[in-house]
Specification:
single chain, about 160 residues, alpha/beta, Glutaredoxin, 5-stranded mixed β-sheet, two-stranded antiparallel sheet, 7 strands, globular
């Protein structure tokens, strides 16, 4: 087992143990870059929530891998990429200036209310919820796509 795998597994297990299996996550809704609204309580599948910002180098660095993960799993789980403090204009500039064609659902957290509900203190941070909206995994820091795929597959097997 690689060191990074051990760290991710330890963080995920620690979160599950400390939060308990009955702990529900805070509900939220946010406007998305495509004009729709993401409402957590309406989701029936597991949910992948990524907190990020356009000014965060590690966040931007993992986005191409996250786009690939989204493309592969968007029919199996729900995704939302919460932009912390950014505006629609910031997101539009980011998407238009990228060499990657981003289709990921980007949500706006202009006043950081959503990230505060989740206790986000550093980004990137990814929280994967099971279909009952319990935290299955909580990852702080940038990862490779394959690391996220492993965690998603664990949640889907439950």
């Amino acid at each position: 087992m690689r060191f990074l795998d051990i760290v991710i597994h330890t963080v995920c297990v620690t979160i599950i143990v400390t939060m308990g299996s009955s702990n529900m996550t805070p509900d939220f809704s946010c406007d998305l870059n495509d004009g729709s609204t993401f409402v957590l309580k309406d989701k029936k599948k597991p949910v992948f929530i990524n907190f990020w910002a356009t000014w965060c180098g590690p966040c931007v660095g993992e986005m191409p891998d996250l786009q690939n993960v989204y493309d592969e799993y968007k029919d199996k789980i729900d995704f939302v990429f919460i932009n912390c403090g950014g505006s629609q204009s910031d997101i539009d500039k980011f998407v238009q200036s990228s060499n990657v064609k981003y289709t990921i659902p980007i949500g706006f957290d202009k006043d950081n209310a959503i990230s505060s509900k989740f206790g986000v203190r550093s980004i990137p941070r990814t929280i994967i919820l099971d279909s009952d909206k319990r935290v299955a995994c909580d990852i702080v820091g940038a990862r490779r796509g394959e690391d996220y795929v492993k965690e998603i597959n664990k949640v889907l097997k439950k």
